Amino acid sequence: MEIRVLRYFLAVAKEGSITAAANSLHLTQPTLTRQLQGLEKELNKKLLIRGKYKVALTKEGILLRKRAQEIIDMVEKTKAEFKSISETITGDIYIGGGETDSMKYIADIIKELQEQYPKIKLHIYSGNAQDVTEKLDRGLLDFGVLIQPIDLSKYDSLALPKKDVWGVLMRKDSKLARNNVIKLDDLLDIPLLASRQMSPKYAKDSGFLNWFGDKFEILNIVATYNLVYNASVMVKAGIGYAVTLDKLADTSDTSLLCFRPLSPRLESKLDIVWKKHQIFSPAAKIFLEKLKKKFNENSH
Q1: At CB < 8 A and 24+ separation, what contacts does 265-268 make?
Q2: What is the structure's pLDDT at 126?
Q3: How many angstroms separate the CA atoms of 93 and 285, rounded?
Q4: Closest CA to 148 of 205, 204, 108
Q5: 8 A C-beta contact, residue 157 and residue 101
Q6: pLDDT averaged over consecutive 10-residue blocks of the chain (300 residues)?
Q7: Nearest CA among 88, 26, 14, 102 for reference residue 55
Q8: Interior CA angle at 116 toward 280 and 132, to 5°?
């Protein structure tokens, strides 16, 4: 399977047309068609459903589009790493993370790094823990900022200095907005938007089972989410109250929303992680050195 042919396939998937893709690639249509047919023969799967004017992807084609993009991304990342070896402290660093106010600690290091090495480029990917660890494992990210709970056995890590505080995001005109803190009884019988950490898979480790006790199973969870922005839109629309971390949504004076912490207080630790035995580019290696210096080398 050639990288060149995967690029051809991605072009067809993007354009939805072999003719349009051939034009964008500066190929003749018969040449591109032969390359695609060869790819289908190699994989022994039909990848495209050919219509009169358009093509669509089969389920195998959808899978290959995802894998092909990951392969192309890895190729480009590898090229950049080797290019940086022969240059004066340049290159790319790929960092993924969930939504957390603690990302400001990473931002401080990035600012210092770019002041010293202006040719280094940072690429930030936002996603939940599953998204980030998948890309870490595939080598598409150098580092990930993860909110506990998470299995760190495959990674080296540094603990970030502060914990994130859990609470409830709500409209300022809601009845609970009058409270300074939110207690368990306040959350019974109201519509809740639940984060990933509240799911049965993670609730025990994240502390939610202990916090809610025997009331956990009777919560009125009307929606779930993995990133806060869309949850905040639903809260604004009056769909429910979002259980989330502090400082992620706009709760300024001009906002419709406010945040109230849970009581008793519930917090989550954060770590920045990287794969064990990772071979870093020069740029990523310098970033790691700065991480260890800033966080006192509390790796585990």
Answers
A1: 265/165, 266/165, 266/166, 266/207, 266/208, 266/211, 267/163, 267/164, 267/165, 267/166, 267/207, 268/147, 268/148, 268/149, 268/163, 268/164, 268/166, 268/197, 268/206, 268/207
A2: 87
A3: 9
A4: 205
A5: no
A6: 91 92 90 92 92 90 93 88 68 90 91 89 87 91 88 90 92 96 94 80 62 86 89 96 93 96 92 92 92 71
A7: 14
A8: 40
Query: Under DSSP, is residue 90 helix (H, G, I), strand (E, B) or coil?
Result: coil
Coil, strand or helix at 293? helix
Distance set, CA 249 to CA 66, 129, 224, 295 (Å)? 31, 19, 16, 27
Confidence (pLDDT) at 53: 82
Q: Locate tokens 């022969």: which residue?
A: 86
Cβ pair 195, 169 in contact under 8 A: no
And the tokens for 147?
């909110």
Which two three-digit tokens encode residue 149?
């709970």
Query: In this structure, what token pair is assigned to residue 232?
Result: 């905040």
Question: Regarding beta strands 155-159 and 241-245, do their DSSP bridges make them parallel or antiparallel, or are they unpaired?
Answer: unpaired
- State the number of CA atoms in the 13 A half-sphere of 107 facing the CB: 5
β-strand pairing of 91-97 with 143-147: parallel
Distances (CA, A) of 282 to 35, 73, 94, 101, 142: 37, 19, 13, 28, 12
What integer pLDDT is reported at residue 99 of this predicted model? 84
Structure tokens at 162: 């502060």
Q: Taking the chain, what is the end-to-end CA distance rounded to the nearest angstrom?
A: 40
Distance separating alpha carbons of residues 54 and 93, to the nearest angstrom: 38
Report the distance separating Cα 267 and Cα 263, nearest Å.
Answer: 11
Tokens found for residue 116: 């010293």
